């Protein structure tokens, strides 16, 4: 244990006790700070990370238990030891249920203090080791998408490896299903922040009135229904990576709020007055052309410049058919192990069909197909007969289909929509334009005809 690098914060409204405990632990070689006001302690912890906090339970303004809760929201690995008088041991035991490591009774026995601090720090080191192990297992459990024989994708892989070693903001561009979130996770896992959280926000799924609260959190009583102080995604991603998916759908006010945080490095929770500082790496993703969105007035140009410091464009799968065998092998191995099935293989004709198909849903569509085949095919070799119709009909013109006499208009419409999404574009907005209807109308018809992503 490298004691000079261990940072400890003591919080107690008794100045004499604070000074005594600080001096005792400094003699042990630790880096120790003290605060007599829990609000001052919170401000200190906005700019510094502490391995250990030793706090009194009963203090004016903010209790030790509330301090524990608020600190754990932003720094889940910080270990807490609480101090209490003999008459409030029950409170300390209750606090341990909320995440405290241990408690000390007053007056503080310095010998016990040193022993409890040592054990708490050993516990923290063990948790960190287990976290690293989980990260390694997680990497093994995910099928690899960053494999390629094409120059375009190899350039992407090299760029991902380069940017991962820095904290630069990255903008991932590409069609739906090209694997933007998995690339973002790969950047995070290869970075110095890999032990920190990876937090995702789907900007398209956040209602405009809730965007500010979703990103920055809110304090109790900030609005109707705000019954407790709740951290936002920025606080949850502290010391890690925040992935902003479908950034083009962020509402205008949310765009302005995000730009301000990027420029100033701090924000206020909804209904709050204190500035909150977090250490977060941003990765954004979009399946739309943001330059066109800027020209149309739907996206802020200054925010685009902030986000695309390093743009990475992911090529669609139809432009790299030679990568399909590599991806299929990766998916077969992953899903065979995941579902406890015997390892299967693709017949040559099956692979040729897959390489000829344009894959409008990109890598996601291929991945879903392979998982389905691993589960449903009993034989060790997957043949064309095992494939769904949209692949076995490839010998026909994919832009035509056959109508049977007696089909209802609804059946014709369902077939046309399915063919458009399968062979033209899996992007709902592009498909709606090709069909000459609004995206909302398309969504309604998809629901009416039961055409989800898995049963086109």
Topology:
Blueprint: E1 7-11, H1 15-27, E2 31-35, H2 38-47, E3 52-56, H3 64-74, E4 79-84, H4 89-97, E5 102-105, H5 110-141, H6 151-164, E6 170-173, H7 180-189, E7 198-202, H8 211-216, H9 233-236, E8 241-245, H10 252-264, E9 266-268, E10 275-277, E11 281-286, H11 290-295, H12 301-307, E12 310-313, H13 324-338, E13 345-346, H14 348-356, H15 362-376, E14 381-382, H16 389-392, H17 409-424, H18 428-435, H19 439-449
Parallel strand pairs: 1-2, 1-3, 3-4, 4-5, 6-11, 6-12, 7-8, 8-11, 13-14
Antiparallel strand pairs: 9-10
Give a short overview.
The protein is built from 19 helices and 14 strands. It has 456 residues and is of the alpha/beta class.
Report what the structure shows.
- There is one protein chain.
- By secondary structure, this protein is of the alpha/beta class.
- The chain has four domains: 131 residues, Response regulator (Rossmann fold), CATH 3.40.50.2300; 163 residues, P-loop containing nucleotide triphosphate hydrolases (Rossmann fold), CATH 3.40.50.300; 78 residues, Helicase, Ruva Protein, domain 3 (Orthogonal Bundle), CATH 1.10.8; 41 residues, Arc Repressor Mutant, subunit A (Orthogonal Bundle), CATH 1.10.10.
- Helix 6 packs across helix 7, helix 13 crosses helix 15 and helix 18 packs across helix 19.
- The N and C termini lie far apart (57 Å).
- The relative contact order is 0.08.
- About 2% of the residues have low confidence.
